[in-house]
Amino acid sequence: MKERILHLFQKSYRELRPRAPLPEIEVEFYAFANINNTIRLREGRLLVRLSDLLEGEPEPILRAIAHILLAKMYRKPIEREHSTRYRRHISGHDLSQKAHLVQQIRGRKQLDSAQGHIYDLENIFEDLNTRFFHGLLARPRMTWSRECARNRLGHYDPAHNAIVVSRVFDHPRVPRFVAEYIVYHEMLHLKHPVKLRGSRRCVHSTEFQEEEKLFPHLDQAQKFLRLL
């Protein structure tokens, strides 16, 4: 297996850099918590780590990975054929389910409490669920982030089935409708999962965007967030 993959990397290298000498390449499968693949240049050697979830995958998929990693490493254009093949493959139902299960087992995500100093996220979820979703959304784990992050306001983590909201919003100066909007946005991710359209991931579909407009304080909330 490793010899076959090594050959694919060597072949991709020659295609991308036909005049450059072929460096020593080391490839290993690694137990990442997700489908991650990395490449590093160390003392003239290329060190490649591939997710062990991809071990035994068909040759076209492994060839696509080799091309993508090497193209990124040497700042070459990534051929659409390879990027499309890889994205479609990892977004497939079976591999996505497998990745979520592995992330739950290996991941070390530490979740805090839904009860903050000012706002209770579980209370906000249930209120929004009744008002906008007819009470039909199953509540995931709700938690404030461990730090007051400003670069990531909130996110839904499917591997841990958790909605995480930045603790920066658990503050007296933050209007309740702002905290509600962030939770509402992540609840829409529950209702409208990411879809693959061609080679592109559609995170905020038309249905998602239309439903987001139903939030009564949308403009005020977004204006508040822009001033952070």
Order of helices and strands: HEEEHHHHEEEHEEHH
Beta-strand fraction estimate: 15-25%
The share of residues in helices is 40-55%
- Which oligomerization state do the chains in this entry correspond to? single chain
Structural class: alpha/beta
Question: What does the main sheet amount to?
Answer: 3 strands, mixed
Going across the biggest sheet, name each strand in turn: 1-3-2
Fold and architecture overview:
It is a single chain. The protein has eight helices and eight strands, in the order H-E-E-E-H-H-H-H-E-E-E-H-E-E-H-H. With 228 residues, the protein is of the alpha/beta class. Strands 1-3-2 form a three-stranded mixed β-sheet, with helices on one face. It has a three-stranded mixed β-sheet with strand order 4-6-5, covered by helices on one side. The protein has a two-stranded antiparallel ribbon with strand order 7-8. The longest helix has 16 residues, at 176-191. The chain is elongated and about 60 Å long. The model has no long low-confidence stretch (mean pLDDT 87).
Q: What's the short version?
A:
The chain is α/β, with parallel strands linked by helices. The protein is built from eight helices and eight strands.
List keywords for this structure.
alpha/beta; three-stranded mixed beta sheet; 8 helices; 8 strands
What's the helix and strand layout?
Blueprint: H1 2-16, E1 24-30, E2 37-42, E3 45-51, H2 59-73, H3 80-90, H4 93-106, H5 121-132, E4 141-144, E5 154-157, E6 162-165, H6 176-191, E7 195-197, E8 200-202, H7 206-212, H8 218-226
Parallel strand pairs: 1-3, 4-6
Antiparallel strand pairs: 2-3, 5-6, 7-8
